[in-house]
Amino acid sequence: MLHFERRSIVNGALLKRSIGQSISIHLKVDRAESGCKSFSGKSSDGVNVQVLLSEPLNGVCTGWVEIIGVAAPNDTVRGKEIVTYFNAGEKIEEFDVDGHNMLCTLLSVCKEPFYTGPPM
């Protein structure tokens, strides 16, 4: 069975409040070269975020990516995993920046968003 590590979905503003915690953040990366161990991107709310990897990047990374890792000081993420989105010959819709920022805000104020009450 796969183990799922709880993490907060954040944008650049909420990253600062999550230092030391497991997070997921979407970044727009201009270009990160194969073999690099760090790169930067802009969060959905326009904050420049630096990503530090423990292993070199395997392939070129561009466009919107999801970084799963641990928030660190100075708008930095210690990345554990990168989820890339690529075009497989089909038209890809643009990333909904406003919707994602609303989701981050909603999740930051809801303590238990999936709580449905005590078991019956």
UniProtKB/TrEMBL annotation:
A GO cellular component annotation in the UniProt record: site of double-strand break
InterPro entries: NA-bd_OB-fold, Rfa2
UniProt source species: Anopheles atroparvus
SUPFAM superfamilies to which the protein is assigned, alphabetical: Nucleic acid-binding proteins
GO biological process, one term: DNA replication
Family: Belongs to the replication factor A protein 3 family.
Protein's cellular compartments: Nucleus
Keywords in alphabetical order: Nucleus
Superkingdom of this protein's organism: Eukaryota
GO molecular function: damaged DNA binding; single-stranded DNA binding
Chief place where the protein resides: nucleus
Protein name per the record: Uncharacterized protein
